[in-house]
Amino acid sequence: MKPVQLFCWHFMAYPYLAKDFDEKYDSGWVTVPNSLWDNEQAKGLYQEYIDQLAYADGLGFDGSVLNEHHQNIYGLMPSPNLIAAALTQRTTRGKIVILGNLLPLHLNPMRMAEEYAMLDQMSNGRLIAGFAPGGGPETFNYDVPSATSREKFWEAVDLIVRAWTEDGPFAHEGRYYPLRYVNPWPKPLQKPLPPIWIPGSRSASTLVEVAKRGFSYFLSSRSHGGETHKAQQQFAEILAQHGDSYQPSRFGILMSAYVSDSDRQAREECEEGVWYFLKNCLKGHLRREGRQLTFGPGVPYIPAPAWREYLKGYKPGRPLLGDVANWEELDASQSIIVGSPETVYRRIWKIVEQSKAGNLLIQFHIGNLPAELTRKSTALFARKVAPALRDDSLRFFEKHFAVAAKEREAGALP
């Protein structure tokens, strides 16, 4: 049994927008004018962001997390594999997690299989391979039909797994990716294959596909509470239906955190970055005002059962994350946890107890937060929050899952 694994997630936001951006522009996604990019200000930005991830690796985080986004100010990684390649040379211990390549947006999944294999070799077996179907603005601005995106996605994933684990050349008779020769060079270093992580938002069909394949699941919601616990329970039930048992290492959640010497100082230091993130970076994606570019062309790809599940939990008037009006509403969402080391530990531990999540993917650079404050918060977390989280989670997981195993053996649990 492992303690909770702590990862530093970096979205690499564009931090140089004018103060009146929220008033003047409808969205930070897809239609946001790229004339706002300022080369003079942005010179060295990627290097600084890579430096922050390398710094977290040196502090003992279990890994760095990257993801793919297109045509937005929220995340400047249209190719997270490029950043991952840099990290293979700048980090030495932590995993390199790409969560993940958006497979339906790419012409041929073999390209992703080959690039991930290269990264696994370059990192000496530290890659965690994440795959996602691509939703919302990504399918919209790439003009990818939504109706077939999930079928294409799972065919692509299965093809990649087969390419990594079966000697080639062989033919793949697929509906979307028919290939005469599948014979990738190189193969990954990890055997039989790198760990595979799939993000999602509680779609039952995604949970079933993840369980069938033995992958790990990551809840993409930023707000934590009862819904996070429900997602964990739902995943555990589906695993049991497929002859498997839930382990904390199979489930993860995303959150943001800022740590300083006191609660008051933490809020004062990060408040500008937090509101920049909420009002600018999320505008048009997780905000009602502005144009929401939610689906690509065709029938929306959310399956009917998942849509019904979403509507059950929907409450009219409930603010989306980007719509929170004040700090109190933000605190209640448990999405961005701000405070002293003691406060941050207490609030995150409550989430771990409730969710039984074994992987926390934590965003430390928030919006336009200055580099020195990002490093300060990351270091305080690593030195004053992480040790207690690891120690307490190990005892909690060992106790809880040992009891669950005994009950399962006795037939009291599925």
Tell me what the structure shows.
An eight-stranded parallel beta barrel has the order 1-2-3-4-7-8-9-11, surrounded by seven helices. The chain has helices at residues 21-24, 39-42, 45-58, 80-90, 109-122, 137-142, 149-165, 204-213, 226-241, 263-281, 304-313, 327-333, 341-355, 371-409; strands at 5-9, 63-66, 95-102, 127-132, 170-172, 179-182, 196-200, 216-219, 251-259, 336-339, 359-363. Helix 3 (45-58) packs across helix 14 (371-409), helix 5 packs across helix 7 and helix 8 (204-213) packs across helix 9 (226-241). Helix 5 (109-122) links the parallel strand 3 and strand 4 (127-132). Residues 287-292 and 296-300 have low confidence and may be disordered. The protein is of the alpha/beta class. The protein contains 14 helices and eleven strands. It has a single domain (5-409), classed as TIM Barrel. The longest helix has 39 residues, at 371-409. The protein starts with a strand and ends in a 5-residue tail after the last helix.
Keyphrases for this structure?
single chain; alpha/beta; globular; two-stranded antiparallel ribbon; 414 residues; TIM Barrel; 14% strand; eight-stranded parallel barrel; 11 strands
Question: In short, what is this structure?
Answer:
The chain has 14 helices and 11 strands. With 414 residues, the protein is α/β, with parallel strands linked by helices. The protein has a single domain (5-409), classed as TIM Barrel (Alpha-Beta Barrel).
